[in-house]
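SAMPLE LOG
Freezer: B-3
Tube label: C17
Construct: single chain, 312 aa
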Amino acid sequence: MKNFALFSLATIVVASAAAGPLAYVPNEKSGTVSVIDTATDAVVRELAAGKRPRGIAADPAGKTLFVTDAGSNALLVLDAAGGAAEPSIPLGKSPEGVHASADGRYVAVAVEESNSVTLIDAPSRRQLADIKVEGKNPEHAVFSPDGRWLLVSAEEAEQVDVIDVALRRQVGKIAVGLRPRGIGFSADSQRAYVAAEMVSTVYVIDMATRTAVAAIPAGKNANGIAVHPNGKHVYVSNGADGTVMRIDTATNRVSATIAVGKRPWNMALTPDGAKLYVANGRSASVSVIDTASGSKLKDIPVGELPWGVLIR
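STRUCTURE (predicted):
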């Protein structure tokens, strides 16, 4: 009995040590969030998440998930470990992307039909402002790492709108191509990268001048963006091509193209930048890419219409 107890304890310790950061994947059609252990690349549990979960964010500790539910027009607040839900936060109709500030103070939600961004105090769950933007049908509202700005992309726009977080209003806009989608920042908040779907281009934005300083040809229907922690590479998903491209930030040129599933959408990197996880909306899967070799490692089955990935 004693030996069995020691063996069981050792098994638990080894299993705990093997666990990597967790990847959370909202499945819009299934109404679930798939949870993937990035150490084993296996789904370890499924969380119930309303009727049409889309965007997903978390507090800095990774204990609380914020998930937009287009079915109930609300922001779901879920316990990341067990899925137990706190009271949801009412939003406008058709909420999409949600993003948390790096310091954990705020959560921002892009709300399509009101053409606005809802700013929420994360600890208290209290709505602070509903900020109107010029772009119609906003999809993503992304904080700069320093927390000063929100960049907002919209389906019916040829610009990203700039919100001053402290002032809680739009203070400018930056011209890009038609239908900007994914947005990512450099770690120092000086550069932003924006995928414009209808022109299949990634725009490099200088935040000091609020201008696009480069336009990088991407694959057809460029969509999601992920910036490597070391700042040397940016990844863009190409929805119609079923690929992900790696862009070298030093040259602003594509250095690798990796085949993934159908309709790749939003993506996330592990904290060490070793692996990239890509939600394939039409394949009901997540592709895992080894960033060192620029090759796909595997496809992980998840729910229907995976919208994106969050890693904590």
